[in-house]
Amino acid sequence: MAEVKIKPLADRVLIEPMAAEQKTASGIIIPDTAKEKPQRGKVVAVGAGTKDEPMELKVGDEVLYGKYAGTEISIDGKDYLMMRQSDVLAII
Prior knowledge:
CATH topology of the domain at 12-18 and 38-91: 10 Kd Chaperonin, Protein Cpn10, Chain O
Strand order of the largest sheet: 4-5-1-2-3-6
Low-confidence stretches: none
Mean pLDDT: 87
CATH architecture of the domain at 12-18 and 38-91: Roll
Shape: elongated
Number of strands: 6
CATH superfamily of the domain at 12-18 and 38-91: GroES chaperonin
Oligomer: single chain
Largest sheet: 6 strands, antiparallel
């Protein structure tokens, strides 16, 4: 995992989405147009938290998040999601 030159503020985290599934459990290949947006990813940067909500996530955590959570950003040609810690549903 490459070092990201961005530091989220307050209770925000930067997440690298995992790749969408290429085929189903039964072996059927899914075309690009039918792939669903991934809902899991790896935390690559975290903020310091707030006085009311300390940061519980850390770099390297694998997390689940809502389908429409976060803001998509691109850094050095890679796509990431920036979201609040409260938008993360679970640590895997």
